[in-house]
Amino acid sequence: MNKASNYHSLFDSEIAILQQNACRCDDWNRIKASAEFDPARCVGVVFSGDVTLGDLSGSYTDKTGVTVKCGISNAHIHNCTIGSNVLIVNVGDYIANYDIEDNVVIKNCGKIYTEGTSSFGNGTEVAVLNETGGRAVKIWDKLSAHEAYIIALYRHREKAVRNIENMIMEYAVSVSSDRGIIRHDSTVLNCRDIRNVRIGPYSFLEGAMRLNEGSVNSCKEDPVFIGPGVIMDHFILCSGSEVTESTLIDKCFIGQGCMLGKHYSAENSLFFANCAGFHGEACSIFAGPYTVTHHKSTLLIAGIFSFMNAGSGSNQSNHMYKLGPIHQGIMERGSKTTSDSYLLWPARIGPFTLVMGRHYKNIDTSSLPFSYLIESNDESIIVPAINLRSVGTIRDAQKWPKRDRRKDTDKIDQVNFNLLSPYTIRKMFEGRDLLSRIRSVTGPVSASYAYNNMLIKGPSLEKGIQLYQIGINKFLGNSMIKRLENTRFRTDEDLRKKLTPDKSPGNGEWVDLAGLIAPQKVIDSLLEDIESGKLSSLEKIENAFRTIHNSYYNWEWTWACERIEQEAGKPVSQFTRDDVLDMVEKWKKSVIDLDKMLYEDARKEFNLSSRTGFGIDGGEDVKKKDFEQVRGEFESNSVVSAIQDHIKKKTILGDELIERINEIK
User: Fold this and answer.
1) What is the distance between the alpha carbons of residues 553 and 479, in angstroms, rounded to a whole number?
2) What pairing do the DSSP bridges indicate for beta strands 137-138 and 105-113?
3) What is the pTM of this model?
4) What is the DSSP letter of 549?
5) Number of structural domains, the chain?
6) Last residue of a domain, one of 111, 141, 169
7) What is the tens place of the pLDDT at every residue in 92-128?
8) How far apart are CA 150 and CA 144, in angstroms?
9) Which residue from 33, 76, 179, 201 could staple onto 183, CB 3.0 to 4.6 Å apart?
């Protein structure tokens, strides 16, 4: 936009042309214009208050190829600055108290205005997890999933939470204004009512019914789209997000790359990177990265989720009709619900668990990751570790990085996609040891075991111990091979030096802060820095999260080495070539055994029963041909071929390390 010094009071000749074009103003002295201003480009405009007008030359071409000249027609402009190459057409009521930058298009809108002083959604309290507000998160333009996780779930660190909230409120005050803004290259079409909304560059708004008290944080690399019928109050939208098709939003933060549509309804909820919500309803949820719900009858309420897929009719209860909606649920990363599933909060579901059926007791499976939670005759049955051998789990892990819709160079959420990590492997250790304890207490021969309002069948317990050990061996072997790659060893001492971890905070417990996997002691140190004032700004906190994310692989070996020593029963300072060779052989066997299980699980999708419904008007030959045309052949399936390639690559990798280790005399 032109600088204020380049604006002049209207010349009499310019006023005359404006009046000839049916433009009106009670006080023309309050209207300023740039040197390039062409009054002929204004037709049927009512000016009031203080208005500055830029160069209105140029033209706008819509998606169909129709071109119209820039300018203002049939609109009431009050207390606004208008940039260059702007097109404003048919504003039914008025545009008031707005700064409109260059190359903006506004057509067929009702009312766009700023009323009073607004922080544009910043500082809004969102009552996540607990509808009564006990875990409310104040939102701001660049709220990360990890920062929100601390605010909502680390209430025991009262000073840290209070300091972060104070920073957010300081930020909200800093962006507060009595003037809204529509940044350059934005398009606003057919929107009825826009009040106290800050619209970022390259935004595209079409057909929204009401936008009230919010920020649209769009950018050139990843524009925001708001579509027909949308109603949003007290919101923040981040770059690359899409909200459309009569979606209803109240008190929500919508992160980068999110998609909400098809009449979705959400209130008091947080949605972080690449979430998707269609048809259903969300109330007081913390939707960590990649939380997805597609079905009309699905309700997500008062829970925290991430990398989660909700089946049709999934539902939860967050109160027992006594003290109100005070209960919460935790579904750790990678969990899924099948159609018509139900969970009674409070409950906690471990990572990568599949929930089937309706569960009317309070359940905690957090120490049994990668399980099936099944309902049978009103009993909750847990099948530990079985999801480790599910090809669907592997497919999920492969698809998430590919489905990252974020194109903004400044990514707010630091997302770790690793299926096996110190966080999930720690849970496997817990699961293995828990199952062993249950067996030792109850006895080795039992039809079923009781645990946390659930039943574990005897064969499932034995299989769970075996599968957890396979997962543990695979991860620890992966970590060792990574540590020893590209290095030649002459002696055992060379080997020990390489295995000895660098000094790092990677040992101890690890946690998952809604996508960010990190050592607990690192997070504790971060909180101490926030409490002491060392991290005194939101920007410093977000930079700290980036540093933690980028340090993951440096710290992972420290943790893995600690567990390797526990499994081996001696420190790596005493390891010999035989210890390493033993671990590599265990790793090779675990990788191949697990991949074979995945291979056989994938084969089920190609068996005879899976062909039911194919070849509708033919015999077996037609059924087979029809199936292969639609699904393809088993061996050529992308997931199946990936499993086969994985077996080959890992075998070669293990053999190569064995060859190098055998060079040690």
Assistant:
1) 9
2) unpaired
3) 0.94
4) H
5) 2
6) 111
7) 999 999 999 999 999 999 999 999 999 999 999 999 9
8) 10
9) 201
